[in-house]
TrEMBL record:
Keyword Nucleotide-binding: no
Domain Argininosuccinate lyase C-terminal intervals: 370-446
Main location class: cytoplasm
Domain Fumarate lyase N-terminal stretches: 96-302
Pathway where this protein functions: Amino-acid biosynthesis; L-arginine biosynthesis; L-arginine from L-ornithine and carbamoyl phosphate: step 3/3
Name of the protein this chain belongs to: Argininosuccinate lyase
Organism: Paenibacillus radicis
Pfam families reported for this sequence: ASL_C2, Lyase_1
GO molecular function: argininosuccinate lyase activity
Reactions mediated catalytically: 2-(N(omega)-L-arginino)succinate = fumarate + L-arginine
E.C. numbers: 4.3.2.1
Domain of life: Bacteria
Signal peptide region: none
Length: 504
């Protein structure tokens, strides 16, 4: 027996081969029965309603098919294993419909293909998962806004290049995260709109010679619009690429935030104390409070990014047409990435909502730091009639001399400043002791920075109020999107129920 015969003997002589079943068909069936069964039923119902309204099948035939659809044991299908008797979930369901309604059930496939059905199922499934992810992003934003509101006057040092930069507030930092998430929200909403378009009626790729109503199916499935070009409806994969890109951007930004939270949780920083439900101890070191919830969040966000990148890579360099690369094999990576984003956002909201902040440590650190020396340079410009560059040189010399003498920022004297001025501009300053103390006060530094977007507490409260209004608008948008999806499903079920209970 040659090698070819040995393979055939092991694999079988008819479709599907044993290894092909193991590697491709069985895993695909398992994913499909879990994620695609409900969208498939919705498509069956919407297409049936449209065919009946357009008189492409008779009311009596429509009723028989509707009864068959309603009689399907979906739970049994969900619990079934791939048998190899049919190719995929579509043919499994079609076989059961044929068993229930007879040959007339075959007319349910008038003017449609597995191609437009498959893309539509992907879009419907992704639509629900994007809604869930958006809900969790908004949940996290809500907790961040509450956290920021508690810390509008919590002084802290802001960092650039990982080095102490300028005094700010914890609210100022957190609101930057909030605004980043707000942009993510707008990107998600835009991606959702592009996603929520109907391919149905494109059939294989060129529409159909039957006089169907594509817009009617679009409405019945709760889509926002129609992908007009039927080739684009089948070939286009940018809808999922856009969702993946937005998901990736969101996960990257959140990962940077989590990295800071982990740093703040160290004993050396001593800023953030993660609440007991979200820390673990060591099996050998009793003193340990490991912020594992944040570690897992960081790791899961990396996994989320990896899944999005896998999906994007699988689309890359594929032919512009119907192709498996952008469907069964790739879709689960998209679902997993959105599922991880959903989970991490909810976990972070709980961690942040229960964390404690060492306000005094942050304040002491800000007062002892030279992070507020920019204000001294600014004050010299105002009082000494010198250029900012000259003022900058004087302030820099003050810092250098103070550090060499072991003097903290709040201990800097007027004599030390005048010595620096003498070295730079050759004369003492008009600056008095009161102005010096004010210039070196981090609280004053924050207060005078009241320009739009600055850390001034009143400015922060203004921004928080606006962001809360924005949050309400986004929540209302999500509520409308969910209701539209739910109402479309309710309407489909209601129409079929009426058909089955009354004469059509």
């Amino acid at each position: 027996m040659n090698y070819r015969e040995r393979i055939i003997q092991s694999e079988g002589r008819t479709f599907p081969g044993k290894t092909y079943t193991e590697v491709v068909l069985s895993p695909s069936y398992d994913e499909a029965k879990k994620h695609f069964l409900d969208p498939m039923m919705a498509i069956h119902k919407a297409h049936l309603i449209m065919l009946t309204e357009k008189r492409l099948i008779s009311p009596e035939e429509g009723k028989r098919i509707a009864e068959a659809i309603r009689s399907l044991d979906l739970q049994s299908i969900r619990e079934s294993d791939y048998s190899g008797e049919v190719e995929d979930l579509f043919f499994q369901v079609e076989r059961e419909l044929l068993n229930q309604a007879g040959d007339i059930a075959g007319n349910l496939h008038i003017a449609r293909s597995r191609n437009d059905m498959g893309i539509t199922m992907c879009r419907l499934t992704l639509r629900d998962k994007v809604q869930t992810a958006i809900s969790s992003v908004l949940f996290l934003k809500e907790h961040l806004l509450e956290f920021a509101n508690e810390h509008v006057e919590t002084l802290m040092i802001g960092y650039t290049h990982t080095q102490q930069a300028q005094p700010t507030t914890l609210a100022h930092y957190i609101m930057a995260v909030v605004d980043s998430l707000s942009r993510d929200m707008r990107r998600l909403m835009s991606a959702y709109h592009q996603l929520n378009q109907s391919p149905m009626g494109a059939a294989a790729i060129t529409t159909s010679g039957f006089n169907i109503d594509r817009e009617r199916v679009m409405e019945l499935l709760g889509f926002d619009g129609l992908i007009e070009n039927s080739y684009d409806a089948i070939a286009g994969a940018d809808y999922i690429a856009e969702v993946m890109t937005v998901t990736q951007i969101t996960a990257i930004s959140l990962g940077r935030f989590v990295q800071d939270l982990l740093l703040w949780s160290t004993q050396e920083f001593d800023v953030l104390r993660v609440s007991d439900p979200y820390v673990q101890t060591s099996s050998i070191m009793p003193q340990k409070r490991n912020p594992v919830s944040l570690e897992h969040s960081r790791a899961l966000l990396s996994s989320c990014i990896g899944n999005t990148q896998t999906a994007l890579t699988m689309i890359h360099n594929t032919p512009f047409g119907d192709i498996n690369d952008t469907e069964d094999d790739m879709q689960p990576f998209a679902w997993r990435s959105l599922g991880l984003l959903d989970k991490v956002c909810r976990l972070l909201a709980c961690v942040i909502g229960t964390a404690e902040v060492n306000k005094e440590k942050l304040r002491e650190r800000a007062k002892g730091s030279f992070a507020n020396i920019t204000e001294l340079a600014d004050e010299l410009v105002r009082t000494e009639a010198i250029s900012f560059r000259k003022a900058h040189h004087i302030a820099s010399r003050v810092v250098k001399n103070a550090i060499s003498q072991g003097i903290a920022a709040h201990e800097v004297t007027l004599n030390l400043v005048n010595e620096a001025a003498q070295e730079v501009i050759g004369r003492p300053l008009l600056l008095d002791e009161a102005k010096l103390r004010q210039s070196l006060d981090p609280e004053y530094f924050v207060t005078v920075r009241s320009l739009p977007g600055g850390p001034n507490p009143d400015e922060m409260r203004r921004m928080i109020a606006l962001r809360r209004n924005q949050q309400d608008e986004h929540q209302a948008w999500l509520k409308d999107a969910k209701e539209k999806s739910q109402q479309s499903q309710y309407h489909l079920d209601s129409v079929l129920e009426q058909w089955c209970e009354h004469n059509v």
